[in-house]
Amino acid sequence: MEDNVLQVITLIRPLALGCLLAGLVSCGSNFGFPGVYRINVEQGNVVTEEMVEQLRPGLNRRQVRYIMGTPLIEDSFHQDRWDYRYLLRNGNELLSETQLTLWFLEDELVRVEGLDAPSWDEPQSQASAPEAS
To answer: I need a labelling partner for 62 at 20 to 30 A (CA). Which of 75, 91, 104, 126 fits?
Structure first.
């Protein structure tokens, strides 16, 4: 009887070890393997400072689309809102995230929200002052 128990234990040990190893491998994305290179993944619209500086109140949708590109999200419930979102990830780690929301009234740009949004309340910069004269 004891011989049978020892034979069963010697058979179960490698099986249990194999199941444990298979479980760890299936969760490998959470642990990460040392030395494995993960590429940076960019998603969304890249919005540069120069693009944001060109935005002015009163621009129509066509002009804004020319400056900013096609918005990532055109909400069918809020047709006067365009969202430009950008994510930069390395695996599960979020490296960079920006979001810019443009609001239109009828066909004219009236408001921009987000961290990179221009402040239209302040006077124009010195570079745009000669254009006004």
So the answer is: 126
